[in-house]
Structure formats: C-alpha cells, structure tokens
Amino acid sequence: MPPLQPMLAKSVAKIPPGMLYEAKWDGFRAIVFRDGDDIELGSRSSKPLTRYFPELVDVFREQLPPRCVLDGEIVITRGGRLDFDALLERIHPADSRVRHLAEVTPASFIAFDLLALGEESLLTTPQRDRRDALTSALQGVRAPVHIAPATYDLETAHAWFEQFEGAGLDGVVAKPPASPYRPGERAMAKIKHERTADCVVAGLRHHKSGPVVGSLLLGLYDPAGRLQHVGVCASFPMRRRQELMTELDPLRMPTAEGHPWQEWATEEAQAASRMPGGPSRWTGTKDLSWVPLRPERVCEVAYDHLQGDRFRHTTQFRRWRPDREPHQCTYAQLEEPADYKLADVLRL
Predict the structure, then answer these.
(1) CA angle, 313 as apex, 308 and 314 as ends, to 5°?
(2) CA 171 to CA 135: how far, in whole Å?
(3) What is the DSSP letter of 250?
(4) Of 43, 87, 99, 39, nearest to 65 (Cα)?
C-alpha cells in the first residue's frame, strides 16, 4: 500500500562489473499502485502524482495486471528525445490545464521493476528474479507503457552510456542482481556524464542559514551577445561559503540596474531570455531573489548534460579561471552528444 519510497542510487565514477544495467531515464520517478480500478501514482518523495497524468491512469487500467505495484519513470518525448521541460509543465494546479496538456503532450511510462503482483510482495525477491517477473507480467503492454531495456553485458552498458545521451537520457544505472528491493536506500549505482564549461559568475543567492553564499548564478553568452542564466553551482562546505562571500564582495552591485539581468523581475523579460528569479513551479512561494554581481569573473564548473539551453542539474564548482575573459564564455564550448532516437532505445 502507498506510500512507498523508491530504491535510490548513489553516484560512482565507472560502470561496475557484474550488474544488471539499465539506462538512466530523465523524467519523474513514479511508483504505480493498481488494485482493480484504483490507481495511484506516488512520486520519489511519496507525494501523489495521479491527478497530473490522467491519460496514464486510463492506460494503466487497460494494460497492467489487475493487482500490481510497479517502479518506473514518467517521461514525455518530443522530436525523438526526452523533454523534461514539457514534463514540468504538467505539474499545474488547474484541472482544465492538466486535461489539456494530457491531450497535447501525453506522457509515457517506462517500467523497470515489479514490486508486487497479485497477493505477493516481491520486495525481498532478488533483482534478477524481479526482472524476469516484470517482463513476464508486462509481456503484452504497448505504447505508452514500455519495459525498460536491460542487459547483464558490461560492454553493452558502455555502449548505451555513450549512445543513449543523444536521446535525452543521462547515464546508466547498475543494479546488483542478487539484491532485494530496499525502499529509500541508495542500493544501486548511477553513472552519469561529466563535462566542464567556463561560465560567467553573474550573481549569487544567500544560504538559508544566513548571509553566506548559497549558490552562484552562472551565465553564458548566446550568439546574439546576451548573457543567459544557465544554472547554478551550490555544493560548498560552510567555510568555503563564507570565503566566497568575501571574495565576491567587491563585485556586488547595489541594485540590478545596469546588469545584463536587470529586468529579471518582469514576466516579459523572463519570457524573452533566461534570467534568475523566475517563479518556481514546485514551490510557488520559494524565495528566488538574488544578489547581482558585476559579470567579470569566470569559473570552471562540471556538468552532466544540458536541458535545452541550460544545465539540467546543479553544477560542481571546479576552479576560478582568471585566464578567461567573460565574453569567451559562450555556448559554443559546450559538447553536443551524437543524435540518437528514443524509439531506438525502446526497441531494444
């Protein structure tokens, strides 16, 4: 019965041998509970997702076994790739908007684990046996429900790691074949791409604990010469947060006037360019105010992949680059993965 926390993964640098390997999907993690006509979708944090994906609820009633619990990922595809931005739009308070988007941008579900079937819980069943049970129970499913491709072959996992990024996936997950399902524990391994980029530090946000750096706001120049907000780096020890506040103090501007993001508070500017301070779809009331800095310093950050024109996840600060000029920090330096169609991934 819900709620049930999903089993999680910890980051490792290399793909380990002797595992069951799957692609790492870039969507909303979801635990699907079905008991007859009753369907519930639980998120990674155990909050219900059911109302946001009515089209999947109908499909689950049609295709899934009458009583089951599945672990998987809700995704949306556009142009042969995963589209996380379109997925974010589905989290909307208005039911009419949710229903409209269900028709315009319907979601799919990628199933990668079976946690219960009929009267039987499979939480203590080894991973390899759960995988066999999953493929058997979902043998007749069709789009928009899919069984995640999986392999025990390490060489194939390395090939997937290189190829699947072009379809919007962001790495590989490795699961111990003999392991039971361990809700809420980091019992799997995830291997993600890491690249580096030189970015302009154009602002900061304070840490929730007080007037020290919580995150640095990063910018890149587009072909038109506009500085676009592309993400943040935020993982610093407390002592380093204090040091950064001192280092960056000479760059602080009293107001945003004259800053490339000076119109960050207006909806028109937010629609035309990427700036910090836009509304948070997840929190609504979260304070996204920021401190403008003169865009004169450059840092190198590590990132995994892009989501459109910004970094998909929080980046990792690597070092200051005093040898780089801000105008040199452009999108041209970013590596583009080779194109790969999501349909080809799902056919495996």
Answers:
(1) 130
(2) 22
(3) G
(4) 39
Provide the CATH number for the domain around residue 32: 3.30.470.30
Closest CA to 134 of 147, 125, 144: 147
Residue 92 is classified by DSSP as: -
**Residue 254 within any structural domain of the chain:** yes
Which residue range(s) make up the domain with 59?
Answer: 8-193
Instruction: Find out whether 76 and 25 touch, Cβ atoms under 8 Å.
Output: no
Amino acid at 65: P
200 and 276 together in one domain: yes
Please compute the mean of the pLDDT values over residues 307-328 and round it to a whole number. Answer: 87
Does residue 24 have an active-site annotation?
A: yes
CA distance 26 to 75: 7
Question: Which of the following is catalytic: 10, 14, 24, 47?
Answer: 24
How many structural domains are present in the chain? 2
- The rounded distance, in Å, linking the Cα atoms of 172 and 151 is 11
Judgement on whether residues 154 and 21 belong to the same structural domain of the protein:
yes
| pLDDT tens, position by position, 184-217 | 999 999 998 778 899 999 999 999 888 899 999 9
Specify whether 17 is located in the same domain as 152.
yes
User: Which residues of the chain form beta strands (DSSP E)?
Assistant: 8-11, 20-23, 28-35, 38-42, 67-75, 77-78, 81-82, 108-117, 120-121, 145-147, 150-151, 172-175, 186-191, 195-207, 210-221, 227-233, 291-303, 306-307, 310-311, 316-320
Say whether pLDDT at 119 is over 60.
yes
Any domain includes 202: yes
Q: What is the spatial distance between Cα 108 and Cα 106, in angstroms, rounded to a whole number?
A: 7
pLDDT of 85 reads 83
- Of 130, 160, 193, the one marking the end of a domain is 193
22 and 116 in one domain?
A: yes
Contacts of 145 (CB under 8 A, 6+ apart): 59, 60, 63, 64, 108, 109, 111, 138
Q: Which residues have a Cβ under 8 Å from the Cβ of 58 and sit 6 or more positions away? A: none
Does the bond joining 292 to the residue before it have cis omega, within 30 degrees of 0? Answer: no
